[in-house]
Q: What sequence folds into this?
C-alpha cells in the first residue's frame, strides 16, 4: 500500500437488534483474553528495559503492533471520519521512520456509521477476528459506551477514545478505558465559571444531544452554578441523533428570551444551529461545544459570516490562525499533512485532533519499551507526566495517573472572527 492510499473499509451486514448484540456481548465476556490483574499507573516514570511482551498478547509480534478502531465514515457524524484517516496517516509516518522499537503500527479502522449496534459488531470483529492488541481513538459517546463493558471484561485497553464523556475517567470501575480531550463536563464547568464572572446576569439556554454527550454539559453547568443553576439556565431543549433538524428546538429557545446559548451538538446539528440562529435574526452570546468548531466541516458549511462571534474552549492551536504561520509545532503539522495526508484539509480542526492524539499514543507505546502486554500498555497510558504536544495551546499539558484518567483538563476560550479563532483570557481549569 502506498503512503497516500487509505485502507478499504468493508461494510458488514447490520445485526438484527441491539438486544441480540447485548446477549452476544454477555456470552463473549465468558472467555478472557490476556488476563491478569487490572493495570495500575504511577511508579516508574521512564521507559526502562523491561521483560519482552508475552507471546500470548494478541496483535503483538516481533515486527508489528496491531490495533483497531471504529469511526463514522458514514452516517450522521461522517464529518468526523477525517480523524480516522488522520490516525492512519500519522502511523504511516511513524512506520516509515522505523516504527516503535522496530515494530510497525498496523491500525485497522472500520466504519461504524455512528451506530452503537454497528460499533459493537465491528469492535467484536477487531477483537475476535482481527486479533488487535487494543482499541484506539474510537469515536462517539454512545458507540464507545456500547463496547466499554465488553472491552473491560476482556481486559483490553480502550485508549484515548474520541469523545469527552466524563465516564471515561473512572479507573475504579473501568480501569481499561481512558479518554484524551478535556471531558464535556470539564468543558461545561469552564463555561460556567466564565459566565459567573463575565455575564452573571445571563439568561442561558442549552441545546443538547439527548445522550451522555449532551447531558454531561448540563451536569458541568450544575456543578459550578449549584443553587443558581435554575436562575441562570432558563430553558433547555434536546434533540435525537435521528432528528432531521433542530429548527423547532431553536425557535422554542429563542422564544424563552435567552440572551446566551450553549450548544452541545455534533457537527451536522451544530451547522444547522448556526444557520437557524442567523435566519431567526437571533443574536445570543453563542458558546459552541469544542467537538463541533471545525471551520472546514462546520463553520464553512453553515456560513462563515453566520459564525462570527462563536465562543468555544480550545486546548489545541487553530490551524486557521495566521499567527500560527511561523509556529514550529504547526509548521511540522502542515509538513506532515502535505507528505502523508495530501487529500485532507490541513485547516480542519478534526485532522489536527488526529495528529495530536496519535502523537500521544506513540508516546505511550514508546514508554512501554519491549513490554507490550495489555497491562503495561494501560499502565503507561496512566503514566503521562506533564507531556506536551507541539499543537496544544500554550500552557496546556497532558498528565495522567492511576487515579486520574483526564489527560487534558485545561482550556482557553477563543472567539471566531470570521476567518479564525482568537484566543482570549487565561488558560482555565475546572477546579
A:
Amino acid at each position: 500500500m502506498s503512503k497516500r492510499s487509505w485502507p478499504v473499509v468493508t461494510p458488514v451486514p447490520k445485526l438484527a437488534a441491539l438486544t441480540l448484540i447485548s446477549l452476544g456481548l454477555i456470552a463473549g465476556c465468558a472467555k478472557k483474553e490476556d488476563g491478569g490483574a487490572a493495570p495500575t499507573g504511577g511508579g516508574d516514570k521512564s521507559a526502562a528495559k523491561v521483560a519482552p511482551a508475552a507471546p500470548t498478547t494478541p496483535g503483538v509480534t516481533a515486527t508489528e503492533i496491531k490495533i483497531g478502531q471504529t469511526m463514522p465514515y458514514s452516517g450522521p457524524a461522517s464529518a468526523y471520519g477525517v480523524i480516522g484517516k488522520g490516525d492512519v496517516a500519522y502511523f504511516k509516518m511513524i512506520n516509515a521512520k522505523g516504527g516503535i522499537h522496530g515494530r510497525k503500527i498496523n491500525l485497522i479502522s472500520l466504519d461504524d456509521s455512528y451506530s452503537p449496534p454497528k460499533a459493537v459488531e465491528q469492535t467484536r470483529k477487531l477483537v475476535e477476528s482481527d486479533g488487535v492488541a487494543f482499541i484506539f481513538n474510537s469515536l462517539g459517546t454512545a458507540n464507545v459506551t456500547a463496547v466499554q463493558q465488553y472491552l473491560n471484561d476482556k481486559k483490553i485497553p480502550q485508549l484515548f477514545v474520541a469523545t469527552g464523556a466524563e465516564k471515561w475517567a473512572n479507573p475504579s470501575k473501568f480501569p481499561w478505558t481512558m479518554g484524551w480531550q478535556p471531558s464535556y463536563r470539564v468543558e461545561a464547568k469552564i463555561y460556567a465559571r466564565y459566565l459567573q464572572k463575565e455575564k452573571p446576569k445571563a439568561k442561558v439556554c442549552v441545546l443538547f444531544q439527548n445522550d451522555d454527550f449532551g447531558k454531561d454539559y448540563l451536569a458541568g453547568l450544575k456543578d459550578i452554578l449549584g443553587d443558581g443553576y435554575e436562575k441562570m439556565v432558563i430553558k433547555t431543549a434536546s434533540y435525537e441523533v435521528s432528528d432531521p433538524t433542530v429548527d423547532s428546538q431553536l425557535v422554542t429557545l429563542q422564544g424563552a428570551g435567552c440572551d446566551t446559548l450553549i450548544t452541545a451538538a455534533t457537527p451536522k446539528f451544530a451547522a444547522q444551529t448556526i444557520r437557524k440562529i442567523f435566519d431567526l435574526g437571533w443574536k445570543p452570546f453563542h458558546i459552541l461545544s469544542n467537538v463541533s468548531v471545525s471551520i472546514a466541516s462546520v463553520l464553512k458549511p453553515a456560513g462563515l459570516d453566520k459564525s462570527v462571534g462563536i465562543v468555544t474552549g480550545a486546548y489545541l492551536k487553530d490551524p486557521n490562525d495566521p499567527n500560527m504561520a511561523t509556529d514550529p509545532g504547526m509548521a511540522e503539522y502542515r509538513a506532515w499533512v502535505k507528505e502523508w495526508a495530501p487529500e485532507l484539509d490541513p485547516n480542519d480542526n478534526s485532522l489536527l485532533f488526529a495528529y495530536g492524539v496519535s502523537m500521544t499514543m506513540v508516546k505511550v507505546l514508546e514508554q512501554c519499551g519491549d513490554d507490550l502486554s495489555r497491562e503495561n500498555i494501560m499502565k503507561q497510558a496512566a503514566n503521562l507526566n506533564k507531556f506536551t504536544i507541539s499543537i496544544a495551546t500554550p500552557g496546556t499539558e497532558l498528565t495522567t495517573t492511576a487515579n486520574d484518567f483526564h489527560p487534558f483538563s485545561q482550556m482557553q476560550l477563543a472567539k471566531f472572527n470570521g476567518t479564525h479563532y482568537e484566543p482570549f483570557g487565561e488558560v482555565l481549569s475546572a477546579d
